TrEMBL record:
GO terms for biological process: DNA biosynthetic process. PROSITE patterns: RT_POL (PS50878). Residues 1-153 form the Reverse transcriptase domain. It comes from Araneus ventricosus (Orbweaver spider). This is Retrovirus-related Pol polyprotein from transposon 17.6. Pfam families: RVT_1.
């Protein structure tokens, strides 16, 4: 069970913490060249990060039984993702040549089996030292290829995850601007695999402009662009 709280009011008055997320394209390219890869999943994710005492009252919420507040970082806070990424980058900074984290997904990548065992040992030791736990059921150990961030990577190559592509293939034609933006978000994720993507998608991206109504017009031009993505 994952407890979620509506933090929209709190987020509206929270100052943004501008910390750069890892570039997924760079991660895929770097990790994909490895011959042996392990992917670790941090078990409790954000809940591994304690909140400062003075911040806890701001996260208070009521239930039918009582009022509670968070002692650890909950999901839904404006700066949660950036804060968690910073913590992971700091924790693994000395291993960046062979270990990268994108939020709670940690990839360890090596050129050969013996080297990988050494890399795996030092990273797991560091996580243990910092009291991070991993979800063994979601971890994948020492593979030549594996799924990572929606891609199949390893052995000098990378390609889209076929399951993700099937999800894109069955998307129905969007009838509103909101639905179109969601579809474009999926298309954009794999834009590096589509030659001349910006040109192909232009009829669709034009429909997201402010002067276009929420109920979007649709002609053969938009249909062709939609099918080519």
């Amino acid at each position: 069970m994952r407890l979620c709280v509506d933090f929209r009011l709190l987020n509206a008055v929270t100052k943004a913490f501008d910390y750069p997320m890892e570039n997924i394209t760079d991660l895929i390219n770097q990790i994909g060249h490895a011959n042996v890869i392990t992917c670790l999943d941090v078990l409790k994710g954000y809940w591994e990060i304690p909140l400062e005492e003075e911040s806890r009252d701001f996260t208070s919420f009521k239930t039918h039984r009582a009022q509670y507040r968070w002692k650890v970082m909950p999901f839904g806070l404006r700066n949660a993702a950036a804060s968690f990424q910073k913590v992971m980058n700091s924790a693994l900074s000395e291993y960046r040549e062979f270990c990268k984290a994108y939020l709670d997904d940690i990839a360890i990548f090596s050129c050969d089996w013996d080297t990988h065992l050494k890399h795996l040992d030092v990273v797991l030791s560091k996580l243990t030292e910092l009291k991070f736990t991993v979800n063994v059921k979601k971890c994948v150990f020492a593979k030549t290829q594996l799924k990572y961030l929606g891609h199949i990577i390893g052995a000098g190559r990378h390609e889209p995850d076929p399951e993700k592509l099937r999800a894109i293939e069955i998307i129905e034609r969007p009838r509103t601007k909101s639905a179109l933006k969601s579809a474009l978000g999926l298309f954009n994720y794999y834009r590096n695999y589509i030659k001349n993507y910006a040109e192909i998608a232009k009829p669709l991206t034009d429909l997201t402009k402010k002067n276009v109504p929420e109920s979007i017009p649709w002609t053969d031009v938009e249909e062709l662009s939609f099918q080519e993505n």
